[in-house]
């Protein structure tokens, strides 16, 4: 008796879901479309590279402050990137600028300019693929006019 009630319940639910019209997915319209950065190849490459470098950036920030500080990839900017060897060799040096904070973005502590490189593992190093070459901290106040702009990708 109980299984008949269960089967009837499932049949009713299935029939109700069939009544819901299927609407093709439409992109969400955003009133701030002028602030959204389109996904060009350059944007995708930059965001991918920042994502791959983020653990090393985070470790450099933690080493500087002695404790965890947050930063946002959506604000990170490449200041410089260059090839260290002849074309065809893949050793690079990149300088990234990020803004750090604690909690819910309050208050900003500073702009961190971090230079990283992917030199081959050297004698006496930990064998990490990315090395921090330089770290420069600039204090920020919450009203600092030179804060990094937000980039929106979605």
UniProtKB/TrEMBL annotation:
This is DUF3888 domain-containing protein. Residues 1-25 form the signal peptide. The keyword Signal applies. The keyword Signal applies. Keywords: Signal. It comes from the Bacteria. It comes from Alicyclobacillus mengziensis.
